[in-house]
Amino acid sequence: MPGDVSIIVPVWNGRALVERLMGSIRAQTCPVAKVLVVDxxxxxxxxxxxxxxxxxxxxxxxxxxxxxxxxxGIAECGTAWTAVVNSDVELAPAWLEMLxxxxxxxxxxxxxGKILNAADHGLIDGTYDALSRGGCAWRVGNGRAxxxxxxxxxxxxxxxxxxxxxxxxxxxRVGLFDETFESYLEDVEFGLRCxxxxxxxxxxxxAVAYHVGSATLGQWHPETVCxxxxxxxxxxxxxxxxxxxxxxxxxxLVGQALxxxxxxxxxxxxAFLRGKLQGLRGFSAYRRVLRPGKVNAQKLFxxxxxSEQEIARVQRAAGSDWYWRVYFALTPxxxxxx
Length: 338
Hints:
Blueprint: E1 5-11, H1 15-26, E2 34-39, H2 46-52, E3 56-59, H3 66-74, E4 81-85, E5 89-91, H4 95-102, E6 108-117, E7 124-126, E8 129-131, E9 137-139, E10 154-156, E11 163-167, H5 168-174, H6 186-197, E12 200-211, H7 222-239, H8 242-265, H9 269-281, H10 283-287, H11 297-318, H12 322-330
Parallel strand pairs: 1-2, 1-4, 2-3, 6-12
Antiparallel strand pairs: 4-11, 5-12, 6-7, 6-11, 8-9, 10-12
């Protein structure tokens, strides 16, 4: 029902951004039951500013990571819907109303909208996420000019943690965000888990938000690159059964090696290698967290293959990145059954 929603905002500094977000939350056309700012040890007065603007602040006392902060907020919600919104986002007034309306369909378990670049509203920051067979993800539309391709509603498997609403009951059914991931790809892992259990979402292009992007550390900060590189390995460890790896070892190798080359071009090769080493060291132990044998291999293969086909389709329609051009050249799309 309208108003039966809590908004969780993980925060680590960025007072001005938090104040801007709070202003946009207060301007929503759909009532919000509560705003939960989960503070990861800010030192610039960001949580105090949010509190002064009506938010309930949960202080973690340290930088506990995105996943742990969100999970702490979920535990305090008590509403039918839970929204997760990054602190460097500004919401259009009808953002929440549009997403709640999509949730009137009982088959919709989460919903996200069109996220535009905060500095240039004509550019897509992201829409929904998609995952390749290589264990690497793409924020669909990132860097492209806004247009017809990104203005069509669609059923989706993966939604970015940047600005998304979830049925709170979904967390009771499939679990919370994986805290081992800390941040980066934790939303992709959650989406893959939902897809395996048969819970789908909705992309609602009329629900618009504006994102600064990588405001905390920066897109190619060594810690960002290290965590992404590690979590790519963890994603494979958690979900790909042995038979899956036998089929997809080449896409995995190509996809993650190409991502390493991208990191190298941005001066972050050391961080990439450090992340891969962390992932490989923890591979066997982490694999036991969710034994891949418990996942239906054929269903999983179909989910990932179809998601990769979506990447290829949008790349063809809206312009191709060099990464995906090389990836698809070396790993042609094939069958969708394991």
